[in-house]
Amino acid sequence: MVEKPDVGELTPPDRTLMGPGPSEVHPRVLRAMSTPLVGHLDPSFIEIMNEVQDLLRYTFRTDNQWTIPVSGTGSAAMEAAIGNVVEPGDTMLVPTNGYFGGRMEEMATRAGGEVVHVDAPWGEPLDPADVAAAMDEHQPDVFGFVHAETSTGVLQPQVPELTDVAHDHDAIVIADTVTSLGGVELKVDEWGIDVAYSGPQKCLSCPPGAAPLTLNDRAMDKVLSREEDARSWYLDLSLLEGYWGDDRSYHHTAPITNVYALREALRLVAEEGIEDRWERHRENAGALKAGVEAMGLEMNAPDDYWLPSLNAVRVPDGVTDTDVTSYLLDQYDLEIATGLGDLEGDIFRIGCMGYSSRAETVSYLMAALGDALSEQGADVDVEAGLAATARKLGEQ
Q: Which family does it belong to (predicted)?
C-alpha cells in the first residue's frame, strides 16, 4: 500500500538571483500570476493574446505578424524555430564559439538537417569574413548565430553584416536572443533577422513557461511550404498558426498564468521604454564591471563585445569556482554560476538582467563577492572594487 506523503508548506529560500537565469521576478509579474484563470479560448484571453503579441513586437523591434509566446521554456522556442525552419536535407550553418551554438547543432540534426560550422574560439564573436567564407563553401539553407552567448559573456557585434552575408546566399537567419531580448540593443527588422527566439526568465524577469518567438514572412513561407510535417506535433508552427493566427482555433491548452506573467513583464518593458531599458542594463552592469576590474579580476570578454546582461568574470588564481558559488549561496542567499563547456572552472557567470539589474542588487553582489573571494584566499582589493562600483552607480 502506498502511504500518504507528509509534505509541508512550500518554503523555498529567498534568493538574490544574479546568475545566468532565471533572474528575479518583478513583484508586479508575481501579482499577475495570482489573478483568476479563464479558458484558453475565452474572449478575454484572446484579447490578452493580442496584447502579448503587440508587446512582443515592440520588444523585438519588429512588425512581424508571426510573433508569439511558445508554450514552454526558451528551449521550446529554440526548437520551434529550428525544428520548423530546418527541413530534412537542409544544410544549417552554426557557430562553434559557445555552448548554445552546440545546442543549435543538436536540434538541427534531430530535425533532419546537415550541420556545417563557422569557427571561432570560445569567448570571441563570429567574424563576418569567416561567415562569408563558410557560406561560399557550404551554401547553407539556414544560418544560426547566438546574439548573446550565455556561456561566454560575449555579445555578437556586426549583426547586420552577418545577415547581409547570409541573405546574399539566400539563407534564412535564425538568431538566439535568449539573453539579449529586453536587456541589450536588438532590432530584428532593421538588422535583417528572419527568425528570433528568446526566453522570458532572463532580461524580461518573468518565470519560464511562455517563450518569445518571431518569424518574418519569408521564414514563415518556408515553414508553411514544407514537404514533410515538422517532427514535433506540439511545436509545429503550421498548426500553432491556427491558435495564434486569425482563427484562434484550438491546438493545445496554453499556460494561461504564464501568459499573464509575460504580458505584465512586457508591460514593464513598454512603460520603461526599450531604449531606456537597454541603457539601464548598460549602466548597472557597467558598475559591476568597474568593480570587479578594480578588485583585480579580469572580464572574459574584451570591451568591444562585452555582454552587459551576462558578465563572465575570470576565476582568480588559487580559487576554486564552486567554493565561491557555494559560499555565496550559503552565506548570502546569492546565486551566481560557474562556467560551461570549454570554460568550465575558468569563469563566474554573473547576470545583471531585468529586475536583478538594480543598483542595490549590484552593490550587494559586489560586497558578497568580495567577501567570498577573500575567504578563499584570493588576492583581491575589495575596498577598491566597492568604491569603483559606488562611483559608477553614483554617476547614474
A: Belongs to the class-V pyridoxal-phosphate-dependent aminotransferase family.
